[in-house]
Backbone:
């Protein structure tokens, strides 16, 4: 498979864009790095996952054999991160529910202790999962490429956080950027 075909496949796979549901391109494309108003935070994450693959090819100067292995192992890393983050968010939400001071029934301390232990176990497994995923990537790359990958990953993560924040703000706005009516006290 040519590098271009592989890149196109990866972008479509990571972005989760079914070909049949693709929208026609607007007359003027959005600015580079600027999300559209209708992007969800998850879509921004997927876009940046694909962007990391595309930029890594150039930034790391990957050979054809390296590129195929790198993409597969990067996908493993991204899946592990996403899965671990979802599990952690779920466990923290459960702890929040249990420890909410507004609960009519106080939480059982043994239940809280058990859940805290489960969270610590999850965090240990997450660290091991990520280390294995990084080791898999490192097996494919030279030391220089590994260093460049870590730098590239950090740069893209910063951009992603900025755009996820913007996407969240856009999703909280009323439709058509209309402001909600201002409520005024009677008689004014």
Residues:
């Amino acid at each position: 498979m040519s590098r271009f075909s592989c890149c196109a496949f990866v972008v479509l796979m990571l972005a989760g864009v079914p070909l049949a549901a693709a929208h026609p391109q607007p007359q003027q494309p959005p600015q580079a790095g600027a999300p559209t108003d209708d992007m969800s935070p998850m879509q921004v994450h997927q876009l940046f996952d694909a962007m990391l693959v595309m930029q890594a090819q150039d930034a790391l100067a990957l050979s054809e054999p390296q590129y195929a292995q790198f993409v597969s192992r990067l996908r493993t890393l991204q899946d592990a991160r996403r899965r671990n983050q979802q599990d952690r968010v779920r466990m923290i939400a459960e702890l929040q529910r249990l420890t909410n001071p507004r609960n009519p029934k106080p939480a059982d301390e043994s239940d809280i202790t058990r859940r805290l232990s489960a969270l610590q176990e999850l965090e240990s497994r997450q660290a091991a999962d990520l280390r294995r995923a990084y080791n898999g990537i490192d097996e494919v790359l030279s030391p220089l490429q590994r260093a460049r990958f870590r730098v590239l990953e950090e740069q893209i993560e910063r951009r992603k956080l900025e755009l996820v924040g913007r996407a969240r703000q856009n999703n909280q706005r009323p439709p058509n950027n209309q402001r909600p009516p201002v409520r005024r006290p009677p008689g004014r």
